[in-house]
Design a protein that fits this description.
This protein is α/β, with parallel strands linked by helices. It is built from seven helices and seven strands, in the order βαβββαβααβαβαα.
Amino acid sequence: MRPRRLVYEAHQDPDAVLRSFAADLNARGFRVVGMVQAGQCVDSSLCAVLLHSGEKLLLAQDFDPAAQGCRLDLARLQNAGARIADALSQGADLVIINRFGKRERDGKGLSYLIERALDADIPVVIAVGKEHFADWIKFAGGMSVKLRCDRDALDIWWQRISAGEPQPATGAHQTVCEILK
């Protein structure tokens, strides 16, 4: 199965697109598992929403006025990942991962969730910044499909995935990749 990457430019907001898409699918009875950034928390730190529960999580280190650079708390990210893995073990129609970044490039962060979902033949959508595009291609081994960073692109893709196209006459299970070829 090929993951879908939602490639975005600096001026685009993939989080809003992914949150809206996930909310609509969940409202229609699909089970969307994963996490999307929710912008800034009350204390101006990084937050995310667990898509299967709607719970908002703090992902940043405790506030330190002297801190510079990335304030992502790796323990909090791993805790969120474990919660997503638990939800994934209960089944999912789609997995959404908020970002592909340097941690995922290095095989850390939430990369194991991407691999777990793909191994289970569950479609995956992940936001990839233009600056991480080359890293993503290497991570995915070129086996990826690019989507524009907008709802129309996601809706068209999902419509095709969930259309319930007939199985081959042999009765063999078709993977999402085979359906999209």
